[in-house]
C-alpha cells in the first residue's frame, strides 16, 4: 500500500483499519486493492446504516447478481458518499416505476447487444432503443437530469408496450419528480422501512465480528450518511 501511505497519515489508524476489516467481513478478497484505487474511502465509517442500506439496495435491485463484495469493489465511492435516500431511494423508485430492467453496468455494451440481437448495425443509433440507466446515473445525476432521464425511459417503454413508434395518446408517460416521491411516499413504503431495518441489523452483526479495539469508531471518521445533492 505504498501509494496509499500518505493518505493514511491523515486518517486515524482505527478508522482505516476498521474500514479494511469491514470490507473483509463483507467478502472483499483484497480490501487493500480497493483502498489503493481510492484511498479516500478509508476515511469513512463503513458501519453507518446509510452506507449499508446503499449496499443492500445495490444487491437487491440491480437486475444482475451482485454480492456485497462486488458492490464494494465496483461502487464503493457511491455507497460511501451518497445518502441512502438518494442512491437506495432512487433505486426503489425505479423498482416502483418498473424500470429496473433498464439498469445496466455499461450503456455502450448494452446498446450494442440490443442492436446485435435485432440484426442492426452496432455502431448506429436505432429507433426504439431503450433508455438505459447506469448506477452512476442513479447516484450522480442532478434532480432535474434524473427526472428527465426517467421521463425518457417511461416514454420509450410506453411506446414499446403499445407496439407503436408513436402512440399519439394524450396520456402522460411522465412520472412525479423523485424529490416529490421522496418527500411524499418513499419514507412510508414498507420496502424502504425494511431496507433500513436490515441495514441497522447489518451494522450490529458486522460490528459484533470486529475485534474489540475496532468496534468504537474514531471521531475523525466521516460518519455522515453521505451527500444528498
Automatic annotation (TrEMBL):
Biased composition (Low complexity): 166-177
Region feature Disordered, mapped onto this chain: 157-178
Lineage: Eukaryota, Viridiplantae, Chlorophyta, core chlorophytes, Trebouxiophyceae
Name of this chain's protein: Uncharacterized protein
Source species: Chlorella vulgaris
